[in-house]
Design a protein that fits this description.
By secondary structure, the chain is mostly helical. The chain contains 17 helices and 2 strands. A hairpin with a 2-residue loop joins strand 1 and strand 2.
Length: 418
Amino acid sequence: MRIRDWDGNLKLRLGVEFAFNVVFWTFLPFLAIFFANSFGKGWAGVLLVLSQALSVAGNLLGGYAADRWGRKRMMVLAACTQGIGYGVFAIAASPWVSWLFIGYLGFTLASFAGSLYTPASEAMVADVAEEKHRSSIFAVFWTSTNLAVVFGPVLGAVLFKDNPYILLAVSSVFCLLISAVLNRGLRETLPQYTLVNPRNKDEAPWYKFLAEQLRGYRIIASDQVFLLFIIAGVLLALTFMQLDILFPVFFKETLPSTDILGFGGWHWVVPGQQLFGLIVSEFGLFVALFTVIVTKWMAGYKDRNVFISGALLYAIGMVLFSHMSTFWGLSLAVAMFTIAEIASTGPQQAFISRLAPEDMRAQYFAASSIRFTLGRTIAPLAIPLSAWIGYTWTFGFLAALAAVSAVLYWLMFKLFKR
């Protein structure tokens, strides 16, 4: 399906979200270094865990609220709240005040808001696109994100260290602008028969609201296939989310400088932090170039084989990262991550849309996003873990988790009968 044939909502989101992601990725890969330098590796891991734990709650709330009050309303609210959070972070990180803990609270607020946005955004795709086109649409959005990843980390490697508050302030402004554009340009796509009478919503006490929310997620948890999908996804997320959590600290501490190219007496040598920016940009470039092609290629294979192969490639990539110290060796490890990422992202989103009943679609997408929010919640513990057992054993442990997720995917498809 060509982009010009997309629903107007999707075209609008593709443009504004790409603009924001370019700015967002200038600082995201370096936040682990920022917090490790500010609070120490041990406390950085704990604080990042706490902030992402709140995001888990936000993800569940976002799915329920998107099914109850509408996709558009939640997306606008989330984008605006992200802008406020990054604005607080920018002020707190400025050289004039340097309120590090207040900055952490601003980051936590922005993360919570981001977890509110995702379920509504993904449910909107399922609302307006036919099932046969959803996989390719998700793939295009993922390609757009990774095009932003190409440019953002390179800029961040140069600018973030000395001027983090400037990049955070720009991100805050972009979020607020996106909120205004979405509010003006989007139309609501929530199926009309799921809308709730506003008067009844206002009169319902808070505990009935909570009970109704938990009841919906209890139904999802009773789906054995979906439950295995979630558990496998959480284990896998612990692996690939190290790309912007453990890896930047690993590069800075173990690769003080790396010779990338040499000719005669000339050598291109970069420090570890800038090398990390190049590696992340390389990952984004690979994904941007090959996502649509590989997604179409993967359509010819069974989902079971795609899911299992992707998990095993993540494990191989993690092992390679722990044994490589050159740019070209690390590029090989990134290639493994790239193949795993682009082979499974679109099919997994399409799998959820097939699995979910229409009236609970956003809640299923929200629950599926727990793979990432729970994974991101636990993933920062790899930072203090690496200080305790060393990087080699930490990378080996993460690779083993990815291999276990491949086994869980195999079990999931043994049960999947729909």
